[in-house]
Amino acid sequence: MDGSIELTADQRKMLLKTYRSGTDSRTARRAHIILLRAAGWTWERIREALFCSNDLITDTLRAWAAGGVTAVVEQASAAAPIPAWLLKVLNWVSRRTPRDVGFFRSRWSCACLSLQLRESGWRVSAETVRRGLHRLGFNGVEQL
Q: For the CA atoms of 129, 130, 132, 137, what is the dihedral angle to 10 degrees?
């Protein structure tokens, strides 16, 4: 793969739309990589500008070579597996209260869940717990 990408006007328009107004940040990032590569940016410059890994760039360019815009968009929208720690959190949130495990509170907080995970052997920050719950559709503490 020599790295050169030529976009048709329709492909460019679709990638720009995906980048600018897409709801999935992974898809937008992949579209951005293709747009920058088509503009002549080097691999290193893309990596430095987007703060992304070589693997992301490789996967995106391979998807582009295999199937164009559709492959890039579909690959990015494939759901990532749910980590085991997040499944454990879901179990706690749905079946227990913080008082069941020794906290003096009536509702779970991300900090309490993080502490409980630490006792179970996972080192996950409260912010990571918040992002994981948000990914699964919990958008606020009132839903916990």
A: 140
Residue 57 CA, distance from chain mean position: 15
Residue 138: other Cβ atoms inside 10 A: 19
CA distance 39 to 90: 44
Report whether 136 contacts 86 (CB < 8 A).
yes
Beta-carbon neighbour count of residue 57 at 10 Å? 20
CA dihedral 51, 139, 80, 55 (to 10 degrees): 0
Whole-structure pTM value: 0.54
Q: What contacts 24+ positions apart, CB below 8 Å, involve 96-102?
A: none
Q: What tens digit of pLDDT does each residue of 14-70 get?
A: 899 889 987 778 888 999 999 999 999 998 999 999 998 888 899 899 989 888 888
- Residue 62 CA to residue 25 CA, distance in Å, equals 19
pLDDT for residue 118 is more than 90: yes
